[in-house]
Amino acid sequence: MKISLTYFVLSALLFVVYSCSSNKTATIKGNINNYEQDVLYMENYTSANALFKEEIHEIKLKGKKEFDYTFNIDKPAYYKIGRTYLYLSPGDNITMTIDTRSRVNGIFEGKGAEANCYLTNLPYPKGGSFWGHPLMRTGGV
To answer: Which segments of 1-141 are extended strands (E)?
Structure first.
């Protein structure tokens, strides 16, 4: 009985230590081009599709161009800054240069950058930008 109680206490202690040490934040930093405001708005695009669950982050800019923002995130989600879509996960630490006029000019480096580099070349979701593609008109791939 004493061994199982000790085992239970040790297991509970390890669980608490693990859950407190897991990184549930994401950090984005960098520059934004062609933007004239003092505050940058980042919308959680995943929650925008859920009913009554809008999440918008206000990021203060330094010199109307530079930002450094860390926030809590429980699970991976899509975010949107201007025309740039981001895929962020807990533990991400991304340095980026983005442009409000074109997302294909986005540059991403650091932990979590690979998915965001991939997103720069995709058609805009829900925008219908892929409907003009010849393969979509003929129905074949």
So the answer is: 25-33, 39-44, 56-60, 66-72, 77-81, 84-88, 93-99, 107-111
**Residue owning tokens 């008109």:** 137
pTM above 0.85, yes or no: no
Q: In angstroms, rounded to a whole number, what is the distance separating the alpha carbons of residues 24 and 116?
A: 19
SS3 97: strand
**What letter would DSSP give residue 62?**
B
CA neighbor of 78 nearest in space, from 47, 122, 52: 47
pLDDT in tens, 21-52: 468 999 999 999 999 999 999 999 886 556 66
Neighbours of 79 (CB within 10 A): 24
